[in-house]
Amino acid sequence: MMNPFTKAKLAKASKLPYLGWVREQLSETNSAVRRWIEWDPDLDVYEAFYDARQVTIPIPVCDWSFLVCLHEIGHISTGDRRYSYLAEYNAETWAMRRAQQRYAVWNDDYLLDSKAYVHHHLVQNILYSSLEVGKVKHHVLDWLGISAEQVLEDARQYSITEQDNNLILR
Ligand SMILES: [Zn+2]
């Protein structure tokens, strides 16, 4: 049972094109919404549940929240998740490609943010998930616009600055 507050927010959002687009993508990818959450760019609560093919996504009200919806749907729709950098790269590129090709939505700032996010996961994977830098996918390095040597150096710098910080990304 959906709470009335969420229902009202969805009704309001349905005046914009994004909600219809998200529903179209849910249907095309055979996935469903577990929970709608009011959009807040500072929240990090959106999530994909692979086995159930469900997503917890923001009520889309702008390009950015629409791309976040597609990102979570992208997690369900893309395969290689052996490392989080790959899972995030696949979800992000899937989301941006679909937004651009199907709905003519493109956002330069989202792309920049996306690269920083994937880069952060890559560094974390090298430091904490024993990912060898030589095994990092070349197409991901190309997309990030950095060399394997640079990634290693970034990981080195990161471990120095984060030495006293045991916070690890999920
Ligand atoms: Zn993600």
Question: Which features characterize this protein?
Answer:
mainly alpha; 170 residues; binds zinc ion
Describe this structure in words.
The chain has 170 residues and is mainly alpha-helical. It has a domain of 77 residues. The chain has seven helices and three strands. It has a three-stranded mixed β-sheet with strand order 1-3-2, covered by helices on one side. A hairpin with a 4-residue loop joins strand 2 and strand 3. Helix 2 packs parallel to helix 3, helix 3 packs across helix 4 and helix 4 runs antiparallel to helix 5. The two termini are 29 Å apart. Zinc ion binds next to helix 3 and helix 4.
Write a short abstract of this structure.
The protein has 170 residues and is mostly helical. It has a domain at 1-77. 58% of the residues lie in helices and 8% in strands.
Which helices and strands occur, and which strands form pairs?
Layout: H1 4-13, H2 18-28, E1 32-37, E2 47-49, E3 54-58, H3 63-77, H4 84-103, H5 108-128, H6 138-144, H7 148-161
Parallel strand pairs: 1-3
Antiparallel strand pairs: 2-3
Helix pairs in contact: 2-3, 3-4, 4-5, 5-7
Residues 71, 75, 88, 91 line the site of zinc ion.
Give start-end ranges of low-pLDDT stretches: none
State the major sheet: 3 strands, mixed
Strand runs, count = 3
Hetero ligands: zinc ion
Number of helices: 7
Q: What's the end-to-end separation, in Å?
A: 29 Å
- Measured by DSSP, the beta-strand proportion falls in 5-15%
**Series of H and E elements:** HHEEEHHHHH
From the spread of the alpha carbons, the general shape counts as elongated
Mean pLDDT: 93
Helix percentage: 55-70%
Look at the helices and sheets and give the structural class. Answer: mainly alpha
- Supply Rg: 17 Å
Spatial order of the strands forming the largest sheet: 1-3-2
